[in-house]
Each structure stands twice: as C-alpha cells, then as structure tokens.
Amino acid sequence: MNDHPLTDPHTALDDQAMQGVALITLAVFLLAMADASVKYFSLRMPLWQLFLGVSFISVPTLGAWLFRQVRARRIRIRSLRWAALRSVLLLVMWITYYAALPLIPLSVAAVAIYTAPLFIALFAAWWGNERLSPFGWLAVVLGFAGVVIVLEPGSLGFSLAALLPVVAAIFYAMAMVVTRRHCRGEHPVVLAFALNVVFLLASCGGAVASQVFTQAAANVPFLLATWQPLGVHEALFITAYALVLVMINISTARAYQLAPAALVGTFDYAYLIFACFWGYWLFDEVPTAHTWVGMLLILLAGLLVARRPSR
Known about the structure:
With about 300 residues, the protein is mainly alpha-helical. The protein contains 13 helices and no strands. The longest helix has about 35 residues, at about 10-40.
C-alpha cells in the first residue's frame, strides 16, 4: 500500500476540502459586501432593474466565453435540467432575501438566512446520503435556538419581514444540495451562465409586473417600484455587482463540488461576521445583545456540524 502524500487518496481529499473551504470563505466575504451594497442602493432602484442590468453584462460575457469553450470541446454541458433547477432555486433565494434587506438590519437578516447551513446538513443527510452525526443534530437544535433568540417571535419588535431570510435559507440549501448531488461534474461557468440567464428572464418578467401591479408598489417598493434613470454611481454599482456576482457564483459552485456540503456549509457562517462589519460600516448598525447571543449559538452549531460522523 502506497502512503506517499502525493498519491494518498485521503490527502488528495483533504486538499480538495481545504480548497472548498477557501473558496466558500472568499465567496461569503464578497457576498456580504454585495448584499450591503444592495441594501444601500435599494432606495435608488428596484430589484428587477438591478437584476436586468447585471444580466445584460454577465450573460453576454459568460455566454461568449462558454460558447468558445464548448465549441473547442474544452467544456461539456452535462445536464441543463439540473443546472436550470439550481438556478431557479437560487433566484427565489435572492428575491426573498433582498426583499427583506430594506426592512430589517443587515445583521438580523444575516443571522436569519444562516439557518441555511443547518438546512444544508439536514437536506444532505436526507437526500445526499451524508450521514448526520449526533453532534450534527445537536448543532441543528442550537442553530435554530439562536435564530429564535435573534428574531424574538411573538415580541412587539418582531417583524414578518425577518422570516423572509429564513425562507431564502431553505431555497439556498436546496440549491446547494442539488449542486452537490447533480452538478458536481458541471463546469462552474456553466452553472454561473445558467443562473444569469434565469436572472435575465426573471428580470423581464419583473419589469412587466412593475408596470401592471402599480398599486402594490407602495407595499413592496423594492420589488415593484417604477424603474429609475441611472446615474454614474448606479451604473458603476451595477457593473461591479455583476462582476462580483459571477465570482461568487463560480466560487460557491466549485466549493460544493470539491468538499462535502455540510463542511462547506459550516464555513458559510463567516458571512455573519462580514455582514456585521458592513452593517456597522455603511449603516451604523450595532447588533443587539440578542443578536450576539444568537450568532454565538449559530457559530457553535457550525463547529458541531463540521465534526465528522463516527464510523
């Protein structure tokens, strides 16, 4: 038996896992920055206008590169069906999460959506045959307890908008398990292109909806408000957001292809730290004591989920 580190399959697996962790950490740092920027610009343009502007940049860019690669037979598209399903799940995730950002503090939204790694662990155990250890089940309980502490359901300060990130977390978790189970062999650029095509189609539908449901715009202005003329700052933001979103999509997809879903999902929790930083920096948001306690419970849950099941 050859135990040389260059050929040992366990070493190769560990290397892949470390690459996956590094990629997801980069992705969530960029994602927290992008989400804070969306919250900052939410009063200047509706969500569909942002998505359409991003799609106009990313779809031609990714499409041209992908076409050349496929034509040269360097990349093969394996399953449009699963790539499309993953993209739709992520689209719903972004819509529900971004709809909440203008209404609640970024730190609260971050804690609520970070039930996602808990859902990932559950769905991976249910659908993905990745057995959840007793520590994993304890992590699920602690994580959800942390979210309840932060959201304080039943209190006077509770807002139904705070539940939107939890709904987003469910769709995100489903998308990541689909990535792990059915898109592992798909090139990350294929997945990013599919997602941006879905964004483009949804944006066109959102543009029509904003013209038809004008009376509902007062209740959900970020989703259905009239589209606004764009200044230099808004145009630069859309361009930068498009580029960052491509990096996030590729890094996230590749992370879940390289490492187990529950492990990568654990390091997703770094988003909480980054979101608090951007919330304080841009909006002077200081997390409450309840938010800190809930966040600590969620971080502890993440460490427990990271433990490998006993054999």
